[in-house]
User: Fold these one by one.
Assistant:
Number 1:
Amino acid sequence: MDDTRPVIAVDAMGGDHGPQVVVPGALTGLTAESPYRLALYGDPQRIEEALGGLNVEGLPVSVVPCLQDIDMGESPAAAIRGKPDSPIVRAMTDQKQGKVRAVVSAGSTGAMVAASLIILGRLPGVDRPAIATRIPTVKGELLLLDVGANTQCTVDQLVGFARMGTLFAREILGVAVPAVGQLNIGGEPRKGTEINVETYERLEASGLNFIGNVEGNRLLLGACDVVVTDGYTGNITLKVVEGFARFMGALSQRPDLTDQERAAFGPVLGFLQRNFSYEVYGGAMLLGVSGVSIIAHGRSSSRAIASAVREAWQQILHDLPGKLATTDG
Amino acid sequence: MDDTRPVIAVDAMGGDHGPQVVVPGALTGLTAESPYRLALYGDPQRIEEALGGLNVEGLPVSVVPCLQDIDMGESPAAAIRGKPDSPIVRAMTDQKQGKVRAVVSAGSTGAMVAASLIILGRLPGVDRPAIATRIPTVKGELLLLDVGANTQCTVDQLVGFARMGTLFAREILGVAVPAVGQLNIGGEPRKGTEINVETYERLEASGLNFIGNVEGNRLLLGACDVVVTDGYTGNITLKVVEGFARFMGALSQRPDLTDQERAAFGPVLGFLQRNFSYEVYGGAMLLGVSGVSIIAHGRSSSRAIASAVREAWQQILHDLPGKLATTDG
C-alpha cells in the first residue's frame, strides 16, 4: 500500500488482438522488484482471462476496470468526450491526477493524440506536440518526428521538434551532442519548400548541432540522431522504411531466385528481424504533452507491447516531460 | 544519308563522369541494324576520345559538337536562355525541329525540365508535366509520379498524372488495365490532406482502375502499376526506396553479424543489385511534354545510361507523346 513506484498504465483492450496479446506483452520481464508497477485498463473479465495463464503472484500489477472502449474508426474528439470510462480516457485522466506516470496504448492513434492534448495538455513553450518514432539505422537509431500528428507544420513547429528531438536523443539515446537533420528533397540550403528553406536558416542559427538537409537515401546510413519533417512526409517515410522487412520477406519467395540466393535469404531475414523489426522499437511517442504517451502499433505483437512499456519506463526514469518543459533551447 | 531511323540525342557531357562513362553506356547494344540512331552532343574532342577505345565502324552514331555546357548548380531558366550551344538546349531544339525524337541527359534535372517545357512545350490537355520513375516491386514494377517536377500539386494535376501513368503502364509496361493508387498516410478515403481526399473522389469517378490509397509499407508489394503523389512526397519516397540497397550494403559490413549471416549477405545483395538497382531502370522521364525527355541519374554508370537510352527508345517505339496528346481520359 505504501508502494511509491511509478505506475505505467496499459490499455489492455488496444490493438488488433486485445488482452490476450497486450497483457502478456506488458508483463514481459516484470518482477516483484521491477522499478515500476503496471496497471491494466479494460474489461476486467477479459484481462483476468489473459492473466489466468500467467504466474502473476507477487508481481506489481493491478487491473483498472473500464466498461467502455474506443473503436478504431471513431471520431477521436467525440470519443474523448463521450467515453470517460474507456481505457485511454481513464488512464490519461489518472495520469493528469498523478495516479499513473505514463499511458501505453495500441489503440486508435487519433484517440491517444486527442486524449493527450485534451486531458494532459501541452507543455509550456510547446506550440505543437509531435509524434516521434525511433528508426533503426546502420549505426544505431535515429528519432524521426513528426510522423503523423500534424499534416502541415510551420517553421516554429519544426524548430520546436528539433529541440525536443535533441533532448530525447541526449537523455534517452545517450548521444552527447545529437546531430539534427531536416528531411528534404535535396542537400543544398535552398532546396525544398519555402518552409524548408526558412527552417534550414533557423536551425543553423539555433545553437543545435544542425548538420543540414538529409535526403531519403541517406536517412538510414546513420548520419543523424534526429530528423525533423512534417507529419505527412514523416508518416509516409516511416511506412516505406517499415515496409522494407516485408518487401524482403516477399522477395525471398520469388521463383527467379537461384538456390544459393534462396538459402541466403533466411539468415539475412533473421538479422533484419532481430535488429530492424518495428517490434524491437518502442512504438511511437507523443512528445510535447505534459506526460508520457506511448502509441504502440495497432497490429502489435506481445513483443512490440513489451518494447512500448520499456519506452514508457525510459521516459519516466529520465523525467523526459519535466526536462522538455524546462528546456528553452 | 537516306537513313530514316529515329535519332536519340544523348547529352555526352551530363552526369558526374562525362563522356568516358556516357558514351560507352549510350552505345551499349548498338549495332548497324539497330532500329534507332544515336547522336552524341557535347565537346567533340572529349567525345572522340571516349569513342576512341570503342569499335564504332558502321554503327549509326554521330557527333553534334556543342561549345557550351550547363553546370549542375546553374539557374535552369537562365541556362536555357544563355547557353543555346549546350547539349541539352541544342538537343531539345533539334527535337522541336524534328531532327531527333528523344533527348537523354544525366545532367541537371532542373535544366532538362526547363528545356523541355520552354522548347518542347506541354502536350495539349496537360496542365503540368510530371517526372515519373519506374520502381521495382516484388511482382514487377510500378510507375511513381510526380517525383520532383511540382513540389505541390492540385487535384487536377494529380488526376492528370493518373491518366498519363495509366497510358504509360498500358503502352510500355504492357499491363492491360493498370491499377492506380494514391500514395497516402492511410488507406481510408478520408485520410490525408484535403487534396488527397478530393483526389480520391475524383479518381473513383474517373473511369480509371483506381484501387484506393496506398500506404508506404505496401508500395513495393506490387498491388499497383501506377502511384500518384505530389513531387515533394514522391521525391522523398523515391530516395528512401533507392537508399535501401545502400542500406543493405552497409549492413553487410556490421561487426555484429554472425559468420552465417555475413556469408548470406553476398548472394542477397547480388539479387538486389541484379533486380533492384536504379541502374537497371531507365532513369526518370518527363511525361506531358511534346516529346521524349529522359533524365538519367547524375551519378549514372554506363549501365544506367544504357537503360535510359532503352527507355527513350521504348517511348519512341510506342509513340508515347502522340498517345498522351490524344488521350482525354
Number 2:
Amino acid sequence: MINTLYLPELREMLAADNSDELGEFCIALHPARTAEFMEGLSADETWLVLSYTDSQNRVQIFSYFSTEKQEEIITTQDRETVSLLVAEMAPDDRADLLQDLETHLLEDLLNRIPAEERRDYLRLSQYPEGTAGAVMTSEFAKLDANLTIEQAIHEIGRQSEEYETIYYLYVLDGEDHLLGLVSARQLLEGMRKPATKLLDIMETDLVTCAPLEDQEDVVDKVARMDLLAIPVVEDERKMLGIITHDDIIDVVQEEATEDAHQMGAVNPLDETYLRTSVLTLSWKRGIWLMILFFFALLTAFALELYDRNLTRWVWLVPFIPLVISSGGNSGSQSATLIITALSRGHISLQDWSQVIFRELLMGLLLGTGLGILGYCVAQFFPGVDSLQAALVVPVTLLLVVIAGTLTGSILPLLFERLGLDPAMMSNPFVAGIIDILGIVIYMNVAIWFLGVPPAN
Amino acid sequence: MINTLYLPELREMLAADNSDELGEFCIALHPARTAEFMEGLSADETWLVLSYTDSQNRVQIFSYFSTEKQEEIITTQDRETVSLLVAEMAPDDRADLLQDLETHLLEDLLNRIPAEERRDYLRLSQYPEGTAGAVMTSEFAKLDANLTIEQAIHEIGRQSEEYETIYYLYVLDGEDHLLGLVSARQLLEGMRKPATKLLDIMETDLVTCAPLEDQEDVVDKVARMDLLAIPVVEDERKMLGIITHDDIIDVVQEEATEDAHQMGAVNPLDETYLRTSVLTLSWKRGIWLMILFFFALLTAFALELYDRNLTRWVWLVPFIPLVISSGGNSGSQSATLIITALSRGHISLQDWSQVIFRELLMGLLLGTGLGILGYCVAQFFPGVDSLQAALVVPVTLLLVVIAGTLTGSILPLLFERLGLDPAMMSNPFVAGIIDILGIVIYMNVAIWFLGVPPAN
C-alpha cells in the first residue's frame, strides 16, 4: 500500500537540496497525507526530508508513519536528534512506539529525554495491552474551577498546542481529582457572559473509566454516549488521562479484527498480517488446528464404531460430508449471530430463553428445507431401494440442523455466562463439536430405519 | 438489557404528578443515561415523563431511545406534539427514524413539520443505505470567509445550539461551495489576534467525501486522518453535510458486524438479531445453507465415484471427516486472515505474491504437523496393515492443508480483484470448496499408495 506518486519529485528535491520546496511539501498537506507520500522513502531519506520543517510539524508527520517505519528511523538515525523528537511525541503514540524497542535502545532513549516525559512513559507502559490505561494519553487540558470563562479561553489559547484535544476541558482540584468538565462549546457559547466561573457551568455527572478497564467496555460507553473523549480516573476520581475519539475508532477496528480472527480459529495477532512471521502465524493457527484435529479424530472413532452399518449400507458413506457440513454450517451461522449480537450489546444473558427458542424454530425451518432437498437427492442414489432408506438422509438432516442451531447458540451463551469471551467459540470449534453429534445422529437414524445389520 | 433501577421511583413521581422531581430527573444526567433509565417505561409513561422538560432536552433524550421505542412513541402518541419533536430532531437521526415508518404515517408527519425540515428529510432519504449520504447530517456550522475571528466566535455562540458539532466550522461561499475549514481550536488560539479574517487562517487542503461513496471508505479516511468530522460534497465542492465522529464509530461497528455475518455465511441483517423475524433470519441463512448443500452434494458424488475403493478399504471411511475438516479449517483460517487484512488495509492486491507464498509456507508447516499426528493415529486403526496404508492419511493431510491455505487466500484476493466484497468468501463457502478438493486428493492418494481395486 505504498503511494509512489511523489517519490521521484521528493528525491529530486533532496538531490538539489531544495529547502523551499521541501519545506513547503512538509506543511502543504494534512500530516497524514504527507506521511503517506513519504512511506516509500528510505529511513535516511525520510529523516532528511523531515529536517526541512520545524520540530512541531516533524513530530506530527512522524506520528502518522507506520510503527515499522518509525522503528526503522529511531534505530538508524542520530540518537540525539531522534530523542528530541521522541520527547515531543504525544504520550500515547510514544508509548506505542517505545514498548516495541529493544531494551538497550529504550534505556538509551529514556536517558536522553526530559525526566517528566520519562516518568510519563514509565507510568503509561505499566498498563497491560487491551486496557484503558494502555490507550490513554496523559496530556489533556486542565483548568481550575475558579477561572472565569474569559480567563479559561485565554488559558486554552496559550496552552493548546500541548494537548490532543481542547474540546473537552477538565476541571481538577489541586491534587488532580476530577471535579467536572467544560466543553469548548460551552466556552464559546458563554462568551456573552465572560465573567461566569467554570464552577457554575461545568458538567459534574461524568462518564469515566478505570485504567484497568477492558478497552471494549470503554468503547461501548463512548459509542453509547457519543463522547469526544473519556477521562481515565483512579480511586477518588484522581485523573490519569483521557482517551480521545480517534483512539476509540482504532480500538473498535482492532477489537473487530480480533473477534473475526477468533471466530475463524486464529489466535489474535499482535501485529498486522504481513508483519507477523510465518512461524508465529503457524503457531497461532496450529494450536487450533490441533484441537480441531482431535475433535475430528473423535468423529473418526465414532464412525469406526458403526463400521458394520457402513459396510452393509455402503450408500450411506457418500452422504457423510453432507450430513456433517449441514450441521456444522448451521451451527456456525448461529454462533456468528449470537457472538456478534452479544458483543454489540444487542442481546444479553437475560435473553437466553428467547434466543434458544428462536434458534430452535430456525433449526426446524432450515432443517425441514434441507431435509426436503435431501429426500429428492436420495432417490437418485444407487442402493437407496426403499422408503425407509430414502428417509434416513432427510430425517438426519432435520435433526442435525436443529442440533447445529442449538449448539451454536448455547455454547457462546455459556461462555458469556462463565465470564469468558464468547468469540473464543470459533466457528470451526462449534462445527467440530457438531460433526461428532452429526455422525452419532446419522448412524442412529440409519439403525432406526434400517435395523442393525447382522455380525459378519 | 433494560435498566430497571429507577422505574419504581419514576412511576411514583408520575402518580404523584411530581413535576419538580421529574423535571430534575430529565436534566440531572447525560441524556443517554436518562434514556437508558426510561427504556422500561411504556410509550405513554415515557411521553408523560418527557412532558416535564423543555423541548430541547426532550429531543436529546428521545434521540437516545432505541429505534423500536422511538417508533412506538411516534405511532401511539398525539400526532401534533409528536411532529413538533420530529421537526427538532437532528436531520440524520430523523431520517433514520422516519424511513422505517409506514407510508401514511410518514406522509402525515411530513405534512405537519416545517417545509425546510421536510425538504431536508426528502433530500437525505434519497441516498441508499451504506453510502456517505445516508449517514450525514445536513446541519453544520457555516461561516463567511470575511468574518474576523472575533465575529466568528460570536456568530458561533449565537447559533451553536443548532449544530451537532461546532468544533469544525466550514467556510462556504454564497452558493454553498466549500472553501475551507476553521477549527474551534484555531478560533480559541486566535483570540490574541481577534481581527484576523477566517480567510487567512482557514485550512484549504481538506479531506472530503462524495454522497454516494461507500461508508466503509469514508471510515478509512476519518480513521487515517484522525478527523472529528468529514464534509460531504457534490460536484464543484458544493457542500451537502457532514459526518461526525460518533456516526463514524457506529458505522465501524455496523460494518464489522456485517463482515462477521458474511464470513459466517449469514446475509447481513438490517436490524439487530432480536428485532429480525425468525422467517427473515431463516431466509438469510437458508440461501447460504442451500448453496453449501449443493457443494456438499458434489462431495457426495465425488465419494460415490470412488465407492469401489471405499468398499475395498473400509478403514478409509472413518478418516473422511478428519481429512475434509482439516482442509476446511486451515482454509477458513487463511480466508479469515486475508479478508480482515484486506478490509483493514493491511494488505492490498499488490501483495498477492507475498501473501500466497506465505500461505504456501504455512500450509507446508501446518500440513506436516497434522501429517505427523495423522501418521501416529493411523497406526492404531484396524485395517491399516502396511507402511503404504499408514502413509495415505498423513500424505493426504499435508496436501489437503496446503490446498486449504492456498484456496483460502486466493479466493478472497480474487474477489477483491473482481471488485466484489472479499467478505462474501464466507468461511463455510471456502470450506465447502475445499471439501470436494479434499475428497479428490484423499482418494487419489489412496489409489497411488494402494493401487486400484479390481472391479467386482
